[in-house]
Each structure stands twice: as structure tokens, then as C-alpha cells.
Amino acid sequence: MRNTISVILLAISSLILAACGAAPTTTPAVAPATGMALEIRDAWVRPANMAAMPMEGNAQGGSGHGTMDQTTEHGSMSAGTTTAGYMVIKNSGSEPDYLLAAAADIAETIELHNVLMEDNVMRMRPVEKIEVPAGGEVELRPGGFHVMFIDVTRDVKEGESIPVTLTFERAGTVEVNAVVRQP
Ligand SMILES: [Cu+2]
């Protein structure tokens, strides 16, 4: 009888020890309380070459970037180098979320754009936000929504990985690594 009690006590203390070991007291509060509903995949950025003619790289691939009527303080002859970033954002949550902004250290200005057909010409337009539907996904792709890097500050070389910080209305900031590649 006494032996049985000892075994039970031993088992209980082992369980307590195991529980303590599995739950460190210094758990960092990094995850949002609601859990991360967004999943971002296939993030990529077009290469950018500072020495290339302005717009040259962006006129390729039918992305509509060649017909942009972006206003710059530099005038059309010395417009800065631009490039664009794309990704798929999936939302497993029950509420829509919105991409509000993107940040990276490769450009002076970063905007969210869409490509629209106006008078039979494809034009890019800044958008305030990009909806990620509840239980669905949105694709940022050439010819559609994209992250626009304006006045690129350095060469962006194929194969590089560019850290991009995305800001969402619900999910807050999310870091992604966008690989630099051709469309
Ligand atoms: Cu654009």
C-alpha cells in the first residue's frame, strides 16, 4: 500500500516537473492574441538596374508600367528607377483584412498600386489599400495590384532576398522576404 502511494506521488511530481518544463515563465508575447490569419507566399520583386534607362525594365512583361504617368519632382527625363513587388496573401480568418502599406530599404517611396484600363491604355493608379477577403486570398501580380518601389536607391539584383515589411489593418506588421527574379 505504501509503495503504491509512493509510486503515485512520484508520478504526480514527474507530471508537475514536465508541465513546468514545457511552460517557461519567460514566454515572449510575440504572437497576436487572435492568431495569425494571414499567410503570404510567392513574394518576389523585379530586378532593378540603376544604370538602365528609366522605365526600360518596367516596360517589359505587359505589366503596364511602361505607360505610367507618375508625377515626379525630377521631371520626365530624369525620372527615378522604379520596380514592383508581387505576392499572394491568403486570409484564413473570418474577417477581411487590408494591406495598407509596404516598407523596404530599396526605394525612397513605396506605394500600393493597381493597373487599370483607361481609354484603352493600361495605367497604374495608387490605391489606399488592398483587400484580403475573409477565407480567401488576393494575388498581387503583373497587370494588377502590386507594391510600387519608386526612386529605387540601389541595384536590385536577381537572386537577392529583399526584406519587406507589410502593414495590415488587422494583422499589423508582417515581415516577408521577397526574392528578386524575372517575371
Ligand atoms: Cu505601379
Automatic annotation (TrEMBL):
Residues 57-77 are annotated as: Disordered. PROSITE patterns: PROKAR_LIPOPROTEIN (PS51257). It comes from the Bacteria. Keywords: Signal. The keyword tRNA-binding does not apply. InterPro entries: LpqE-like (IPR007410), Lxx211020-like (IPR058248), PCuAC_sf (IPR036182). Residues 1-18 form the signal peptide. The keyword Signal applies. Residues 68-77 have a biased composition (Polar residues). This is Copper chaperone PCu(A)C. It comes from Candidatus Chloroploca asiatica.
